[in-house]
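Data availability (excerpt). The following record was deposited with the supplementary files.
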Amino acid sequence: MIDFTLPPSLLVSLIIAVAIPALVGLVTSRVTSPAVKGGLLVGLSLATGVLTELGAALTTGEPYDLGVGILNALLTLGVGQAAYSAVWKPTGAADALQALGTSGKHAAE
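Predicted structure:
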């Protein structure tokens, strides 16, 4: 017999991973260094992986597994990077979000 189950925490991580590049675009400007944007993506991915595993551990009453949290963070980073490269950037949505996130003097740059 084969079971196919997807834990809710994994689905939440997947949805957040696709949205993280958009969030980074909203909170940074066009002149922000790519290294800063990458650092934000890594930080948000780490937080997502660790916190979704923490949420899963708290809801199920099982012990927190840091290894699963870190693996989830790495997968979130990979999915976020892929979503940016395959969806957000080619469709122009990344530029639109970047423009939306800028205001005042940065909008003219």
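Summary of structural features: The mean pLDDT is 87.
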